[in-house]
Specification:
Layout: E1 5-9, H1 19-26, E2 30-33, H2 35-38, E3 47-50, H3 55-65, E4 71-75, H4 84-92, E5 97-100, H5 105-113, E6 121-124, H6 131-139, E7 144-147, H7 154-163
Parallel strand pairs: 1-4, 1-5, 2-3, 2-4, 6-7
Amino acid sequence: MSAPLTIIGMGLSPDDLTARQQSAIEAADILVGGQRLIDHFSHLDCQRRPIDKDLKGLGNFLQEKMPGHRIVVLTSGDPLFYGIGAFLVRRLGAEQVHILPNVSAVAAAFARLGEPWQDVRVVSLHGRHRTGELLRQLANGNTVSVYTDPAHGPAWLAGLLVDYG
């Protein structure tokens, strides 16, 4: 028997979904995700629940709905790299969750550059202030890939790097 909850990484766009991922989404009774992600599937006949800042409420909702429902959670990026997947595995238990990952932004960026990335350090500034870790990695001469957010975007990052020489 498969897990009652499937978490799907969307890749860079819905065009990146595999046939298996697309089938799971189409079979869902309940579709959960950021509003922009679930909007891609407005044609499906299922209940929708946007993810907001109330993660405790989301966990309660999922626990209540899991028995008897096929639930799919859509994520941007990698569900287990600072994503909702880690929270849901901790909250619901690994045996209750099936994860179908997709291409990460880091993999896609390095593919576009035609560069290997096995030695790259990845730092996320998305929703967190980890500039110390970023600066340490750079000071050590490491190549660093940085996930940003609206508050810590590329212009902010460029200013930080200029400030620190």
